Amino acid sequence: MTQTAKPSVQHPGLKPNKLGLTRRDYEGSQSTLCAGCGHDSITAAIIQAFFELDMPPHRVAKLSGIGCSSKTPTYFLSDAHGFNSLHGRMPSIATGANAANGTLSYIGISGDGDSLSIGFGQFSHAIRRNVNMLYMLENNGVYGLTKGQFSASADVGSKAKRGEANQMRPIDPASTALALGASFVARSFSGDKKQLLPLIKAGLTHRGFALVDVISPCVTFNDHEGSTKSYAHTRDHGHKVVETDFVPLLHEIQAEQNRESATAVTMHDGSVVRFKSVAEDYDPTDRDAAYAHLKKLQSCGEVATGLLFIDPTSMDLHEFENTVDESLVGLPFDQLCPGSAVLDDLQSRWR
Amino acid sequence: MQPTDASNPNYYHKVVDCQWGCPAHTPVPEYIRLIGQGRFTESYMLNRESNVFPGILGRTCDRPCEPVCRRVRVEDEPVAICRLKRVASDLRGDVTDLLPTVPEQKNGKRIALIGAGPASLTVANDLMPLGYGCVLFEKMDRPGGLMRTNIPSFRLPGSVLDDEIGMIVDMGVEVHYNHPIDSLKELLDEAEFDAVFIGTGAPRGKELSIPGREEGGSNIHIGIDWLESVHFEHIDSIGEQVLIIGVGNTAMDCCRTAKRIGGKNVRVVARKGRTHFKASPWELDDAEEELVEIVENHSPSRFVLENGQLVGVEFDIVEWAPDENGRLLSTKLDSTVIPCDDVILAIGQDNAFPWIERDIGIEFNEWEMPTVDRTTFQTTREGVFVGGDAAWGPENIIWAVEHGHQAAISIHALCEGDPIEERPSYGMNLVSQKMGLHSWSYGSAYDESGRSKMQHVELVERFKALEVEVELGFDAEQTAVEVARCLNCDVQTDFTSGLCIECDACIDVCPVYCLTMTANAEEEDLRLDLTAPAENTDQDLYVSANLPQTARVMVKDEDLCVHCGLCAERCPTAAWDMQKFELLIPYAGKPTWIETPETALTTS
Ligand SMILES: Cc1cc2nc3c(=O)[nH]c(=O)nc-3n(C[C@H](O)[C@H](O)[C@H](O)COP(=O)(O)OP(=O)(O)OC[C@H]3O[C@@H](n4cnc5c(N)ncnc54)[C@H](O)[C@@H]3O)c2cc1C
Ligand SMILES: Cc1ncc(C[n+]2csc(CCOP(=O)(O)OP(=O)(O)O)c2C)c(N)n1
Ligand code: SF4
Ligand code: SF4
Ligand code: SF4
Ligand SMILES: [Mg+2]
Questions:
Q1: Which of A113, B70, B206, B574 is found 20 to 30 A from B19 (Cα to Cα)?
Q2: According to CATH, what is the number of the domain A23-243+281-320?
Q3: Which residues surround ligand 6, an ion (CB under 5 A)?
């Protein structure tokens, strides 16, 4: 609950990006979350990613539901479009917005409560439709905003602040997404920006639904001993399955020279995601193997992190529906609404 | 890198750029905050402790603190530190009861002070309250040294001098005016004094030996002597066309004075180009505002006389270029005669000690300067000290004051029988400024205002009399703005590594990207591996002990921190805290109290 606004003073040596904007231009208003909240770190990584990708803020739409996590779109890209929806309903708003205007970049911010309880159905269908968006699930194992009740991602045996242990089995967003056929599944930790940043960039570049599940400790209700989503626990049990490097299209050629042997996946726009395999024979393009690996680590209490799976060739919502390239608002009115004669003609074909 | 030892007062002291840059280490941000709170008297007294002459310095200080002010690195223009000092002085209340008291019972030691400039006066200021008998010998009929006789009254009113010198002299200093010391030997032979302090300044203006100098005589003046004569009203006019040769601060005072006593067409002529001028930029501005013309790259070659009367000066017009060693060499392009009625030479000052015998144990070097120890200010004869301009040539008032403080420490140690080489150390206090969840006891918000401009008396008004003070001082609004511009660099970001949970909150919130958590490395590499590269190597990196969870280190680049306190405000564990640093400066008879680990244990 910081009341002091971040001063406008800038580092005089700040380099602008290709659009002539500095990192500060990608900020939003000052966070009102608890000091030390993992969500704020994720916000900082998002700011950095948009800045480094030279993305114009006004061509971005940020959407969210309800929760501490869902409050965070206010804290980045103040010049972007935004919609703060009902609890758990962000995916359907995002789907609708995307359907009407596929030319914007979509980023949805959600929490484990927002996505895995009230919004679980919505979450699943956004995956199923392969909506072209980056879906950030800021996962702290609790309902932070309503004062720390266990959420559906809380691990069995994880202790609440008062000491009682969770008994119900958790829903793991990453393996759920894999099972539902998601085309991009990653997991990271708010306390590890080095890993998180390239994942956000890759997710923003991916065409289709990109899930980044980020363990994001709730300092107030879930950072104590016995919690499996604390800073200390995540640092002890995080397990980097793959190390990822995101190379935007324009930098590809220089980067080519000094790379280690690595698997590379080319995205639809020509950018490259490069994997440095940490786990032996891990193949991030093999859904079944990824699923198996995830489950194996999960059973021994470890949290697999990295870009776990990617399918850069999947069809997204617009391809399924064969829609126009342009946004609906950009279409001339006579095309958007061709009139009753055209409607009559259409209907007569089905009589 | 080794973890930073922030318990050494020098570390945080250096962060307070202005205080570190001030020869007397005036606690600038603290006095500025006091002004902001309307506590002018307290602010004045705080100033007085370190710089002794806040009213004088608030108008005339060379301000070494301003070019190093953090604000310059953050946005270009420094806080108007010096002029705020004047605000404290102008608006203060009666300080009589707050001045150091002098004990009835003297300690029986007598100290001779030769010359009544700021250096000697500071020694008296520091020693009188300890019970010393200070005896001041001054060749003029009034105290103040060059501050009185050379700095023109339109920059420094006599009443301000009277006031601040009075505070010292009235402690009971035994003063002998019109009493030049002609023989140090005699003074020492009398054996009346336990120590002698020489604060006689650099009294001899440099000569310009070019053809015509002798013949031109009465119309060619030595700058500092001429200013002195104007001060004593021995001179009250000058010709209409005046040339000032030299472009240091003395030249600036000469040209502006000339303008006030009859000079119409006043030119300052410099041998080199503007970037090489010795005068402070603000003094140049003030002179140019008074329509003084500044001529560059003119090297005087001869005084031109007609019928024994000075009518002009011939100059070589030159161009400067560096030779292979980087030394600037001139090439003559042309020559020209600039007509004039009077010339004032302002090309520097020399020391002169004809009154110190060379066989009394005081070693002199090849330039006829006494050998003076840089820390103790003692000559090669025990008990004889030198400070101010007399020690190593012309400097300025604030250095003279600092020399005075240091010499007083030495004199006191000598009289106590302590070794004078062992200097008392600096100490510090650190106090958390936290008032509540989001409030600090200092104004942490960044103020975007630009530097306030000093208002000047109208040109016509200021030329009416020599003593019309040109600068009006800041008004209440300007003061309020200027106070808010200070970045409170003494409110330190103090880090406790054991508390950090490595959540990144501080790193992300810092508006100027000062902070980084990273693997430790050598300084060179570390400087590049930060959130923003630390390119200013004059500024330190703070490096913490290893962090508990990942064994990385917290690194802070001190360069641009605006002391906004956001890192501490966003830190969930109070690993960062904003703590006010108070530098404890040792003075004669007042060592600083330093908490050693042992005393810490017994007191807690
Ligand atoms: C024109 C001019 C303008 C200046 N402007 C500034 C300014 O704006 N800001 C600034 O900080 N500095 C300024 N200075 C420099 C500053 O005035 C000096 O650095 C400072 O006064 C030095 O102090 P001091 O105590 O060493 O000696 P001084 O101030 O030189 O005092 C020495 C005193 O000793 C006396 N004396 C000398 N010999 C004897 C003797 N044998 N017996 C008895 N008495 C003797 C002299 O009469 C004099 O009163 C200026 C200097 C000049 C010349
Ligand atoms: C329809 C509806 N039901 C319940 C709530 C109460 N509620 C607000 S936030 C929240 C849970 C948020 O948890 P999560 O998405 O994990 O966000 P976090 O605060 O942990 O980041 C709930 C249940 C609500 N706002 N709306
Ligand atoms: S309650 Fe938890 S999730 Fe919400 S802002 Fe505070 S730390 Fe973050
Ligand atoms: S006080 Fe903290 S947040 Fe503010 S500039 Fe300094 S390091 Fe950055
Ligand atoms: S905010 Fe505090 S706990 Fe978090 S990284 Fe910074 S110092 Fe450590
Ligand atoms: Mg949650």
A1: B574
A2: 3.40.50.970
A3: A 111-113, 140, 144
